[in-house]
Amino acid sequence: MFMGYENKQYHNRDISRKTWEKISKERNANITAIKGRWRGLGDKFRKELSKLPKNVQEIKEGPMIKPAWPYYENLLFLKISLLREL
């Protein structure tokens, strides 16, 4: 379950804690390790997203590049939340 900034429950620490505990049990892994992995995936997604053309002029001037990172397409739902950060 991903809660982006637009979710009313996003800042609810109790719900956040329970969600991480649930994921920890499902994955049979330490919460700290899972949070670190999630942060790493988000950072890598941000890096891959930054490689894409930023405006129409860049798109016209060069070939359309699709990131080769295997998780890019699966994490596209993060794009909306990342754009709201800017």
Short description:
With 86 residues, this protein is mainly α. Helices cover 57% and strands 0% of the residues.
Key traits:
mainly alpha; 86 residues
Structural description of this entry:
The protein is mainly alpha-helical. It has one domain (13-85). Helix content is 57%, strand content 0%. It has four helices and no strands. The chain has helices spanning 13-27, 31-50, 56-61, 78-85. The longest helix is centred in the middle third of the chain and has 20 residues, at 31-50. The two termini are 23 Å apart. The model has no long low-confidence stretch (mean pLDDT 81).
Spell out the blueprint of helices and strands:
Layout: H1 13-27, H2 31-50, H3 56-61, H4 78-85
Protein name: MADF domain-containing protein
Organism: Molorchus minor
Domain MADF: 1-83
Uncertain runs are: none
| Number of strand elements | 0
Domain module tally: 1
Question: Quaternary status of these chains?
Answer: single chain
Mean pLDDT: 81
Q: How do the SSEs run, as a string of H and E?
A: HHHH
Q: What percentage of residues falls in helices of 4 or more residues? A: 55-70%
Please give the alpha-carbon distance between the first and last residues. 23 Å
Count of individual helical segments: 4
Shape: elongated
Radius of gyration: 16 Å
Pfam family, one: MADF_DNA_bdg
Protein name: MADF domain-containing protein
InterPro entries: MADF-dom, TF_Adf1
